[in-house]
């Protein structure tokens, strides 16, 4: 993956140093090409896959470059950080929340974001529903499923998601559009494949339940290191940060 992020500078034969000479716009072109190739490989329409440019820790000026290069959905993990960026960037892009959402931030999240990818409990769905009702809108959300039994970082296990699904139909101001998952970190994109396959199976099961306001058309899966595998397994929303903006500063 690293070789994708860094092009060797033409002068490197002389100086021996590595420079990150690829621009955000060039990265986006290359990523779109790779998405297209992966989609066509499995007979999918490349237009059925949307790119969420994940811009946590990225400053507005560089986000603007991505917007100018055609990024239309931006992903953020932090409500306050997003608020600052949305204030200075143009409005024609849409913002998706992809991070861990605390209930006390739900009110702001409902106002700022067009979709929340990371709803992992009925309680949070209910809170968002209440806030959306007050705002007079219907908020599209995804349920975050934790498919790795051993570490339950964020996300609800599959059984809980299926159980939650029945109750969710009662919430009138949230619209459940699909599922999101984040496989455990690995250097090998193939390690993510079983998780992506599993998410699609859960999606199919939930779709068969025919719950009102639960439509299940979106699968948010795939990041910088494994998005081609995700496309092959049916992803409709890719959350890509590093491959667009370069490595993030260590915390
Ligand atoms: C940061 C983040 C991403 C993007 O990860 P990259 O590896 O930089 O592409 C995707 N999804 C979530 C939930 C994230 O927090």
Descriptive report:
With 251 residues, the chain is an alpha/beta fold. The chain has a single domain (2-245), classed as TIM Barrel. Helix content is 41%, strand content 17%. It is built from eleven helices and eight strands. It has helices at residues 2-5, 12-15, 24-41, 60-68, 79-88, 106-112, 122-135, 158-168, 193-208, 227-232, 242-245, and strands at residues 50-54, 73-76, 94-97, 115-119, 139-144, 174-180, 214-220, 237-240. Strands 7-6-5-4-3-2-1-8 form an eight-stranded parallel sheet. α6 (106-112) packs across α7 (122-135). The protein is globular, with a radius of gyration of 19 Å. The protein starts with a helix and ends in a 6-residue tail after the last helix. Residues 1-19 have low confidence and may be disordered. The site of pyridoxal-5'-phosphate (PLP) has 14 residues, from β8 and α11.
Features:
TIM Barrel, binds pyridoxal-5'-phosphate, about 15% strand, globular, alpha/beta, disordered N terminus, 8 strands, about 250 residues
Low-confidence stretches: 1-19
Count of separate DSSP helical elements: 11
Instruction: Summarize the main sheet.
Output: 8 strands, parallel
CATH-level-4 superfamily name: Alanine racemase
The gist of it:
It contains eleven helices and eight strands. With 251 residues, it is of the alpha/beta class.
